[in-house]
Amino acid sequence: SIEQVEGFIRQILGWREYMRGVYWAHMPGYADKNFFEHDRPLPTWFWTGDTGMRCLQHAITQTLDHAYA
């Protein structure tokens, strides 16, 4: 229904605007923050989509191709 679509769009736009505000308020130092101190690189399949699982492979390759799953 149109109400569901409207709610979804509002959530997406609201989150994007919130994150934009966070970046605006805390940059440039915010880009270098690593609260959890994670330092390992992402696995190769994260960038290639070669996972052996069709659903995950499809989502990753679609995101890589179109920047949207």
Identify the quaternary structure here: single chain
Give me the strand/helix succession.
Answer: HHH
Percent in helix: 55-70%
The total number of structural domains is 2
Distance between the termini: 21 Å
Broad structural category: mainly alpha
Overall mean pLDDT stands at 86
Evaluate the radius of gyration.
Answer: 17 Å
**Low-confidence region ranges:** none
Keywords:
mainly alpha; 69 residues; 2 domains; flat; 3 helices; 61% helix
Give a written overview of the molecule:
This protein has 69 residues and is an all-alpha fold. The protein has 2 domains: 1-33; 42-69, no CATH class. Helix content is 61%, strand content 0%. The protein has 3 helices and no strands. The chain has helices at residues 2-26, 45-48, 54-66. The longest helix has 25 residues, at 2-26.
Task: Give the arrangement of secondary structure elements.
Layout: H1 2-26, H2 45-48, H3 54-66
Quick summary of this structure?
This protein has 69 residues and is an all-alpha fold. It has three helices and no strands.
